[in-house]
Amino acid sequence: MIEISAVHKAFNQGQHNEYWALQGIDLRIEAGKVTAFRGPSGSGKTTLLTIVGCLARPTSGRVRLRGEDVSGLPERFLTEIRRRSFGFVFQQFNLIRGLSALENIILPALPTGRPRAQLVAAAMALLEQLQLTQRAQAKVEWLSGGEQQRVAIARALINDPEVIIADEPTANLDSTLAGEFMGLLASFTAAGKTVLLTSHDPLVVESAAVHRVVAMRDGKLIEA
Amino acid sequence: MLFQPAIIALLLAAAVAVLMLAAAAPFALSVLREWDIGSGSERQLVLERRTYLFSTLVSFVMAIQLATLLLFVFNADRLAVMFVGAMCAVGTLNVNAWGFPALIVQMLVFFSALVWLAINHVDNLARDYPLVRAKYGLLLLLLPLLMLNFWLQYRYFSGLRANVITSCCGSLFSEEAETLTAEVSSLEPRAALWLFYAGMSVAVASGLLHWRRRGRLDGGWLGIAAAAGFVIALTGVISFISLYIYEHPHHHCPFCILKTEYDYRGYALYLPLFGGAAAGMAAGALQFFAAVPSLRAVLPRVSARLALLSGAGFLMFTLLATWFVVNSKLILIES
Amino acid sequence: MRSWLDRQLHLIDFTLGSLARRKARNFGLLAVYTLLVFALASLSLFASALRSEAAHVLAGSPEVVLQRLVAGRHDLIPPGYLESIGRVRGVQKKEARLWAYYRDPRSGSQLVFMARPDAEVPVGSVMLGTRLAAAAKLNVGDTLAFADYRGQPYPLRVASLLTPDSELQSATLVLLAEADFRAFFAYPAGHYTDIALSVRNPLEVGNVASKLAAALPDSRPILRDEMLRTYEHIFDWREGILLTVLVGVILTFAIFAWEKAAGLSAEEKREIGILKAIGWETSDVIRMKVWEGLVVSLTAFASGFLAAWVHVFHFGAPLFAPVLKGWSVVYPEFALFPAVDGLQVATLFFFTVFPYTAAVLVPIWRAAITDPDLVMR
């Protein structure tokens, strides 16, 4: 599904504070599985996810998505691919305050130009799946942490992507909610979606819902 | 005569367009020098992001040019009252030698900006941005044109001297002032009619042909046909269509038809005409890049759509013009 | 096409919500913007109302007015002068006119006395403008008295009121019989103020004037078109000068708009970062921000223009009148009649929306190129 070869990523290239976040990553990620990236902060796992998720381009190396090389693409096309193929759940949830849950969920679909009625219907279906229907019109800042995460998940799913990328998804949740999240992961894979997540939470990394754990340190893979 | 509100506005708009593009020129140069689509460096990313600024700027300049084109003509019409012998915009534009050149260059800027935007659009559809260098080279060519536009407008407006009573006593200078002819040299109606309908048929047919065939040759031909069609259409407006609209056998003005008295029929004519001509020219210009490998799939699609637009624009213009002529009470040609 | 439209609708929708969420921040900009439009629109509406008043007045006046000069000064037309003109080709009608300025000590305003044939205004009576009559609390049938050339009251009966076509024209007009006129001013018999000539064909006016000037070297023909040109030019010029002064204000506004657009709050930066991360493209963000600019511009333009309308046509433009009105030909007081033309609105648009848009383009682009992976860092 996703092939990464010899990927390097530098920040502040050519300046005195040049920093190589990734130093030669080779990895194949299978479709329909949950893969977890584990490692201390600064190990490059989040950077790797941004590259896989078409949020950023590698400084060198190749990224192939379903056999298509996406590493050299300009942002315009990366965005298109990202919108179609990836859904993101961020650590801070990154919902837009002042908007309702429903409005937040349809945000990624606005540039596609699908009619609003269609989008609202799709968002309501997702909210129902996540048992959040009654909170659809609530402003997101009034929601609890668990509810916010579910809104973030619904937002990640609105464009029906093949891959879900979650960055430290349980960092802001208590154990019960984290457990619920892991349950949701299983339902994603059951629906044929691929999940990539970063975490150093043992509850996540050791969960049965995770099929594969990749450990990283200093921008390199240490066990895969 | 620079202290007139509309003139200040026009000069301001022209100056800002020049300044904006001039300020952007160094960036365009660095894109030309450093562009390397294969590189994943941060520098390349910065350059790529600048391209968004340029397309926004040029779109803005184009929108402004379209607006100033209208303002320019309106203003010329309004100023006519200040010049002896000037009955409408034509008279005002003829007050000195710079009026019509300024108008023509203004139109040129508008069409060039539109063509550039078409090239930009096609380029943005190909994943390797194959036309970046060509595009930014052309952008640097647009700059002198904008400067010329500003200069001509400045010359024109600063050269305007109203025939005005300078003290409240009144003086007579109508006798010294040369009477300006508001009449444009015009063709004999029958010949004009033939030329007009022949030209419009060719333009419409070329549009439809390229829409169906999508070939490089017919695309290039469409570019030429559209440009020629535009000139022929304007000739038609001046030599007979306007006469029928005014219902007056000697009023040849292409601007007065924009006025309220004529139900804004000018807009109905000029909008499809300008749209059709611009689309056709853009389709023609795109053919220069038809051989670029990464554009083979997308370019003909875009250019066919432009061709359809062009054909439709010319067709609509012709039909409307014909309708105005047929419904007019004026009889120029006895049948 | 459909999806393009839907996309724009979504963006507008989003941008309206986002403006509403930052009311306090946007309100300042909107207020300043509206104020700018208000000031410029008041100026422009006022100038154009003056222009159209002037044009209106002139529309009713003759094509050519012939004055006689003595030693470079305007003098009375002596007896026989009118006849000495003879027939001039193109002149349809020529008429010797009798009129005068009169300063009314009670109202302090400058009135225009004009003699009319007895058939129109019988001896011993006057016709007044409605405004003048209202100011002096006069009705038809009442008698009023002006001080004549000796300072003695000269009683006149109000025969009827003039229905105003234009305020300027009739605000200060007093029509009276020729006999009354001559008696009132002790105007020498047979003498006239000037000669009005009507010329049907506008192309002939110039010829007629030069023939007159050649035939009567001591005369000065004044053409209506020249008056019109002069009015147009003066008002445009005054407006232009004021605008030039205001260019500084516009520039300041543009800088203010730039600052506002460039100084994104942390919250707004974060929002754009989120939008980009979840699949918005740079050009989507630019489009969204352009819509935002348009919404702000149109709101400010509409409200500023409306306020200016009320200011000028309901309150008589108290803020600008002193600068624009002070010209001896224009009468001291009159109410303005609403007049707007397209060119004026377009020009106004250029002076306000254009600088704003030009100023915010670069900040918009800066905001739009936010790194999409920012929210992951």
Structure description:
The complex is a heterotrimer of chains A (224), B (335) and C (377). Helix content of chain A is 32%, strand content 26%. By secondary structure, chain A is α/β, with parallel strands linked by helices. In chain A, the strands form two sheets. Chain A has a six-stranded mixed sheet, sandwiched between helices. Chain A has a four-stranded antiparallel sheet with strand order 2-1-4-5, covered by helices on one side. Chain A is globular, with a radius of gyration of 17 Å. Chain A starts with a strand and ends with a strand. Chain B is mostly helical and 335 residues long. Chain B has two domains: 1-167; 171-335, no CATH class. Chain B has helices at 5-34, 42-79, 89-93, 99-123, 132-158, 189-213, 216-246, 265-286, 299-326. Chain B is flat and about 70 Å long. The model of chain B is unreliable at 166-184 (pLDDT under 50). A six-stranded mixed sheet of chain C has the order 4-5-9-6-8-7. In chain C, strands 1, 2, 3, 10 and 11 form a five-stranded antiparallel sheet that branches. The radius of gyration of chain C is 30 Å and the shape is elongated. Chain C has helices at 2-21, 23-59, 81-85, 130-135, 167-170, 178-185, 205-215, 224-262, 266-277, 282-314, 321-325, 342-368; strands spanning 64-70, 73-75, 91-97, 99-103, 110-116, 125-129, 143-147, 153-162, 173-177, 194-199, 219-223. Chain C is of the alpha+beta class. The interface between B and C is large, with 43 and 53 residues.
